[in-house]
Design goal:
By secondary structure, the chain is mainly beta. It has a single domain, classed as Porin, CATH 2.40.160.20. Helices cover 10% and strands 55% of the residues. Strands 2-3-4-5-8-9-11-12-13-15 form a ten-stranded antiparallel barrel. The chain has a two-stranded parallel ribbon with strand order 1-14. The longest helix is centred in the N-terminal third of the chain and has 15 residues. The chain is elongated. The termini are far apart. About 6% of the residues have low confidence.
Length: 284
């Protein structure tokens, strides 16, 4: 019986600890979805639209997840070479109460992301339906944060913004398997993402606590492991597709430990191939 007051005090202490307002990191970049159209005939083309969800890979799982609309297109100007392009728009929102579980903080947080890529891909026939499909390209992104009523180390609610303009280059070794009704691909996309212009009013007091300072001219190098599958339901030129990707930092720990980004992508979508509409069968 004499231990109950101590037990109650311990529970009260833990409750106050986990419900205190603790600043958390902010994401400053969203990894692009890999592009792998798998075109092997001159004049072939494909346009795809996808809805994707992005998340970070931190163990505490600080939200919010990002919703994205991804458009991808490709055109084969020879039997081996294709030009690739993509455009993506994403958004995320989070509303934090005054007191919540760590590491969340009290804020109204909004993310916005717009990105594009342009590249080329080569399809090398290796064996039966297996192809080696390396690609290379460039891209750019604008990633913004509206951080309202942020409760940071100095206390009080203050509104902050951050806008990153990011330049990107990538190369992507991959493999692609073409089937009669199902196609699949997998590979690694290595990206070099330079924060070419950073505009923010986060201060040296608030910034380090949420990992948004010292980004100007920094480069985040990532490797994204990805896979996709396309199914043809029997409607000419139409395919259903699913894709997953998870990226990892190639920087040393001094940078990667304080630079957080949306590294995990999962998407569902459809693709339309005008060239396939002219074919009686997918394979002779």
């Amino acid at each position: 019986m004499t231990q109950r007051p101590y037990l109650a005090l311990a529970i009260l202490f833990l409750t106050l600890l986990v419900t205190s307002c603790v600043p958390s990191y902010r994401c400053v970049y969203r990894e692009n979805m890999a592009t792998l159209p798998g075109l092997t005939e001159k004049g072939d083309g494909v346009i795809s639209g996808n809805y994707s969800i992005s998340a970070d890979n931190e163990s505490d799982g600080f939200g919010p997840s990002m919703n994205n609309l991804d458009l991808q297109g490709a055109y084969a100007f020879t039997d081996h070479w294709s030009v690739l392009g993509s455009f993506s728009a994403g958004w995320a929102n989070y509303k934090g109460p005054a007191n919540t579980f760590a590491p969340y903080d009290s804020c109204t947080l909004n993310y916005k992301n717009v990105s594009w890529t342009l590249g080329a891909q080569y399809m090398l026939h290796m064996h039966k339906r297996l192809y080696f499909a390396p690609s290379i390209g460039i891209g750019g992104a604008v990633f913004g944060i509206n951080d309202n009523e942020f409760m940071g180390p100095s206390g009080g609610g203050t509104n902050y913004t951050l806008n990153n303009r990011i330049l990107q280059g990538y190369f992507q070794p991959a493999f692609y398997i073409k089937g009669s009704y199902v196609e699949a691909g997998f590979g690694v996309r290595v990206s070099f993402n330079n924060f070419a212009h950073v505009n923010t009013n986060y201060t040296q007091t608030e910034g380090p606590a949420i990992s948004v300072l010292n980004l100007q001219n920094a480069t985040l190098n990532t490797a994204q492991v990805f896979g996709l599958i396309r199914c043809y339901p029997g409607i000419k030129g139409l395919a259903l597709q699913m894709q997953f990707g998870n990226s990892f930092s190639l920087n040393d720990s001094s940078f990667s430990n304080h630079c957080k980004w949306y590294s995990i992508n999962f998407s569902l979508g459809i693709s339309i191939s005008p060239f396939q509409l002219r074919k009686k069968k997918r394979f002779n």
